[in-house]
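Researcher: Here's the sequence for the chain we discussed earlier.
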Amino acid sequence: MTANALIALAFAFAALILVVPVALIFTFALREGIAVYLANIIEPGTLHAIWLTVLVALIAVPVNIVVGTSLAWLVTRFRFRGRQLLISFIELPAAMSPIVAGVAYLFLYGGQGLFGPALKAANIQIMFTPLAIVLVSLFVTAPFVARELIPLMSQQGTEDEEAALSLGASGWQMFWFVTLPNIRWALIYGAILTNARVMGEYGAVSVVSGAIRGQTNTLPLQINLLFNDFNITGSFAAASTLTFIAVLTLILKTLVETREGK
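Model: Thanks. This is the structure I predict for it:
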C-alpha cells in the first residue's frame, strides 16, 4: 500500500469516526431552524447549565494550575522520602473511574457519610450543591497540569534557577523570570486539557450533583436530561454548545503544540 493510499485511508477513517458525528450534532441541532435552535440554547435550564459549567471551570482550572505547578516544583526540585509515592498519588485521579470518585465523595460528605453528621450539625450541605461539583471537578482534573510539567521540569534541570539565585534573585523573581518562561507552554497546555475535562465531566458530577433541574445540572447532565425528556432538538442544541467548546479547545491545543514545537 502506497503512502498516498495510507493517507487517504487515515482521512477517511477520521472523517467517519470524528467528523461525521460532529456534523450530525449540528445537523440535528439546526434541523428545525435557527430560531428554534437559539430558543433551545437560551431556555432557562440550558442557560443555567452553561453558566454553571463555565463557573466550575473558572474555579477548577486556576486552582489546579496553582496546585499542579506547586506539586511539579516540589517533586522536580527536591529529593525527599516518599517522593515516588507522591508522584503516584498525583496520577491516582487519572487511574480512578470518575464514578468511583463521585461515590467516594458521597461517602465522605453525604448525609450518611464520614463527615455527614458533623456537616449537618453545622448546617452545612456539600452534596447536591454546586460546591460538590467543584470538588469532584478539582479531583478528576488534578493530574493534568502536573503531568505536563513534571517531565519538562525534570529534563530542564536547575542550572538556570541556580544561576538566578547566585546573581541575587529572590525565590519569587527566580520563578517569575526564569522558571515560568521555561514552562509556560506546557503550563498552558495542561490548563487547556484541564478545562476540556472539567467542561465535559459527567460520571463524577452525576453522582454528587443530584442533577437538580436549574440548580446543579452542568451541560453534560443537561444534555442527558433533555434527551431522556425526548427533547431531541434541545438535547442536540445543548450538545452543539459543548461540541463548540471542545472544538475551540482543540484549536487552542493545536496552536499551543505548534508554538511549543518552534
